[in-house]
Every structure is written in structure tokens, then in C-alpha cells.
Amino acid sequence: MYCTKKITEDLYWVGANDRRLAMFEGVYSVPRGVSYNSYLLLDEKTVLFDTVDKAVGPLFFENVEHVLNGRDLDYVVIHHMEPDHSATFLELLLRYPNVKVVCNQMILTMIKQFFNKDLTDQAVIVGDKGEFCSGKHNFTFFTAPMVHWPEVLMSYEHEDGILFSADAFGTFGALNGAIFADEVDFDAEYMDEARRYYTNIVGKYGEQVQMILKKVHGLEIKMICPLHGFVWRRKIESYLDKYVKWATYTPEETGVCIAYASVYGHTENVAEIISSELRDRGIKTVMFDVSVTPASEIIAACFQYSHLLFCSTTYNAGIFVSMEELLHDLAAHNIQNRTVAFVENGSWAPTSGRLMREIIGGLKNMTMLDQTVSLKSALRPGQEADIEALVDAIDKTIHKFEAPKVDEAKMAEAEIDPKTFQKFSYGLFVLTAKADGKDNGCIINTGIQLTSQPNRISIAVNKANHTHDMIKATGMFNISFLSESAVMDTFKHFGFQTGKEVNKFDEHIPVSYAHSANGLAYITTGTNAYMSGKVVDAYDYGTHTLFIADVTEAVVLNNDPSVTYAYYFAHIKPKPQEKLEEERHGYVCKICGYFYEGDELPADFVCPLCKHPAEDFERVG
Ligand code: FEO
What we know:
With 621 residues, the protein is an alpha/beta fold. The chain is 27% helix and 28% strand. Bound molecules: MU-OXO-diiron.
């Protein structure tokens, strides 16, 4: 039975997952499986982007047939000829004999090599910057040699801003129901597998990856569709940033990746002591036993960390076999720009240090530390100084900021005056959202521009607000910038009642409003601008959620000055009646003026009108 995913209005994922494969490419363990992605576009012409591995052929063909829904397949675009994406190509030709093959000359040659088929008459040849149109959708092709084979093409779809990136931006791991990277906690759950995938599959070809990154730089990429793993539609810049680091062999983290080969545990013991001392100095470490850890994991960690420590016993007058394999593998993957240290062991003739140094010394921009620790069978008394010297040498190459000395007791007694928070020069905004066909809004003072490339803002919203839940569910909001011409009624209307109980956009609304391109309301009375946000991240901070959003629309309505918190208190919020204040004993909400009568305001008290907490109350009387 078919299992497909809709990606955009016209584009469908028709790939499949393999969770039984033990070794990807016969080399890399994939305990969490792997996905083979193929995409099908329904336009005036139907276009399939790549096929899949033979292991998942039956489901793939069911998927294609289901999405085509009786239509013929007009085109298949081949981006990459490695059989994990092309093994089912021949069967595709048999099932859809009229299909035209969009590819480059090298792909056409490889089709002949793999399948003994000359498709010259059936081919639409596209080179670098070649163009293709399927009706509503226009494509530009980019050659991407050695990412990961020489024939590789990428293509860019102009209308929806989609980059079909071949192997690039892929990850190991089957798709378990989710298709978009933002549907999972990618950083926590998949980034290690993405790094292991990149470094082992294309790590060697950093220069070529840099070239294709330059080629696509400047394109408005709104979505990336790779041949393995998730489709990217959010936080694309942060994933691109990882690719720039990996492609330029720039460490992601300052820390030491320790790989050791130890037959009887003595070399491991020294690796442990060094790791422990580095940690005591605040230096991050990770440790791998090369005898039991797949080399692909250690290679990924070597790309991640700034410092590498290799510890190996001497074996048959050489380097221990699994360590020697690892080092040659690392060299083959072109690792560069690292600081490297060694520990050697040998009961009668330790040579592994010199030999490891020879392999790593041949690589680009490697800083080799001289302080090799040399063991004869085991660490002997007095050799602590050797370890100290090596740890010192690593420590000296790591810049660490020294924190100021803190008097904890003085810190604990330090005053926190709530009035200080009013010194922030906050603006004030009507935050609006829409769900179930209903507009709603509340007042916030936490709108901040985060970055300008891309245009990104943050808002913190109290979870007690109905608008909060609407944004959480829909991922969309508007903020209307209140100006000095705003009146108290606006604050009362949006701030002192909840959308859970009243419809704030019914006929009693005291302001005029309109709807922006995203369909949400914005306020046009007492405001000077509005902005629309599309949520890209949300962080839970107890009472509030911090939403990070891309700006999808931003319009200036007039040049009235924006209202500040201070202006609101001085000129908009009504002054308390001083005489009455003298007679009353209790606490008044500084935000909305609600009066709580009593000697003691409970610490967890929340204003029933504006939902502000106890710290926003001041004592009167
Ligand atoms: Fe996923 Fe280079 O093949």
C-alpha cells in the first residue's frame, strides 16, 4: 500500500525507508535505517526527481502510481547515478516507456555503463545553469561534481524556491512518519547522524562542496529536498552554516576527540587520565575505543572537535591495526585544521607515536604537539609529569575566557528592585492571531528584532493568554506597533480581558483593523506599523513561551512615535486617585490599576484583569 507525503501544493515525496540495511554502501552502519527520497511533481507535465534503491522498489512504484493517479510520467530528472538512487531506473523505463530523461552528458554515459542502454533519443540534456520548464514550474540546473560523484546535478525550482540537492544536506536514519526536519528535534536526535553522513560520504570533497555552496548562494532557498533524510523548510541557514563549517574543515566545537587502541587496557588507562585532567581544566572531551566503535562515528567526531588525541599501542612493529585503519581513513577524508597529540605504547620498542605522526603530519594545517606520552607497557611512577606536559600543551592552544571572581554571599544579598524593569525602553504592541476562523489579540511589550538577515523577530507571550495558544497551534501572528496616539481603551480592550471569554473582534471593538496578507488582523487605530511573523522556533520559559519568527510582511502606517512603556505610564494609564490611595490598604497592579485589598499579597498572585504577576503590584496605603 502506498505511503506518500505532500511537500508543497504540487510536489510529493514518493520515496521509501530501509530499516533492514546493515551497512550503507557496504561500509557505514545504519542502525536507524536510511531513507531513499524521490519526489514527484504534478504540473502541466509530470516530473519524477530520481528513483530509489532496489531494496525499496515495490513501495516506490506503488507511490509513484498513486500520486500520478492515472497520468503518464512525462519526465524523470536524474541528479545522481549512484545505485541507491538509480537502481530502479530501468524498471521505471519499462513501466513508463514514454518518459523523457532530464540529465547531463555524464549521467547519460553512466546510464549506458550501468544498464547497457543508450537513451540519447530519450534524453533532455542540461548542463550547468541549464533550464527546464514543466508548465508552472521553472528549474535551473547546477553541476555539483564530486558531491558526491562527478556526474551530480542539483536543481533549483524558482516558483517555490526549492533546491533539489542530491546527496547534499542528507542524513542517515529512516523517516519515521515525519518528512520535515522541523517536525523533529533535529539537533538533539539527528545532527550526529547528519554529521556522520556528511563527513563520511562527502567529507573528502570539501572544496567541491564549497563550490556548489557558492553557486547557489544568492538563490532564495525556501526548501531543500535531499536524496536522504528530511526535507528542510525552516532553519535552513543554520544547516547551511554547518555545511560551510564541514566543507571548510572548521571545527564546530572547541574540545578534544580522544581515540585510543588498547589491547590490555594500559593505553586506555592513560587516555582516561588525560581526559579526566582536561575535564578538570574545563576542556570538553569525547572518547572512543577504536576496536569497538565504527570508524564513521570517530571520523564524524574528528570533524566536530578542534583537537584530536590518538593513543595507540605498537602492534607488529606498527600502529595497532584498527587505529592504523582509522588514521588512513581520516587522511582519505581530507581532515584539516586541527591540533593533534599522541600517546604511544610498546613493551619493547614503542614506534606507534612516530608512525601515527607520519600519517597525520601529511595533512593540511595540522598543528602537531611535541609532548607525546611514550609508555613502556604501562604508565610508570614519575610519568605523571609527561601527562601534565601534554595536557598543558593542549590547554595552551585553547583560548579560554577567565570569569571574574565572584563573592557568592554578596551576590545572594544583592537587591532586585522591580522598578528597575520599568527602565527597559519597551515598546507596546497588540499581538494578534487567528484560529478556527476567529481573530484574537492581547497586549505585549516583548517584541524585539533578532536578526536582519533573515528578518527575524522574537516575542515572549504569557501562557495564560488565549493568543499564546493560538500562536502555538498555528505558528502565525501579527504585531501592531502602538503609537503615542493610542488610548487607554485599546489597552483595556486587548489587555484586561481574555479571548477565552469574549470575542475581542466583535462589534464592541474600540479600534479599526484590517487584515494583512497572511489573513490575520492588524490594528489601524493608535498604531504606526504592523509586522507579520511566521514561527520558526519556540522555547518554553515557564510562565512564557519565547517565539522566534521570520517576518513575512512589514508595513509602516504613519510616522507617529511608537509608544514606550514609560510613555504609557506617564501619559496613557490613568493616575490613581491619590486620596483614595491614602485611604486604601493593599496592592495596586502597576499595569492595569486593579486593586487588591489586604496586608499581604500572595507571591503567586496573578492579576485577574491583565494577568501580570505579583511583582507587577505595588503596595499602597
Ligand atoms: Fe545517496 Fe551518493 O548516493
